[in-house]
Amino acid sequence: MAVIQFIQGVNEDVIPDIRLTRSRDGSTGTATFRFANPQVLEAQTTNKGT
Predict the structure, then answer these.
(1) How far apart, in Å, do the first and last CA atoms of the chain sit?
(2) At 39, is the secondary structure helix, strand, or coil?
(3) In whole angstroms, what is the distance from residue 3 CA to residue 18 CA?
(4) φ and ψ at residue 40, rounded to 5 degrees
(5) What is the pLDDT at residue 45?
(6) For residue 14, which of 25, 6, 22, 26 has the smallest C-alpha distance?
(7) What stretches of the chain show up as alpha helix (H) in DSSP?
(8) What is the pTM of this model?
(9) Which pLDDT score, from 0 to 100, does residue 35 have?
């Protein structure tokens, strides 16, 4: 299974809303990840990044 880590070794448990876009000719695209209340911003987690 894939995981997202904003801080190395700390998995983000919040599942993001993902939006995919593609250019008209299909040569490029973008994936946008939106997190509602990500754990990386919680006080006890932010100390792990230092």
Answers:
(1) 27
(2) helix
(3) 14
(4) -60, -20
(5) 73
(6) 6
(7) 43-46
(8) 0.65
(9) 93
Instruction: Take residue 29 and report the two structure tokens written for it.
Output: 């695209």
- Give the pLDDT score at 46: 64
Contact 6, 12 (CB under 8 A): yes
Helices (H) and strands (E) in the chain, counts: 1, 2
**47 is written with which tokens?**
């100390």
Tokens at 26, concatenated = 């299909």
- Residue 17: what pLDDT? 96
Residues sharing a CB contact under 8 Å with residue 18, sequence separation 6 or more, in sequence order: 31, 32, 33, 34
Task: Quick: pLDDT tens for 1-50.
Answer: 899 998 888 899 999 999 999 999 999 999 999 999 888 888 777 667 66
Residue 19, token pair as written in the block: 């939006």
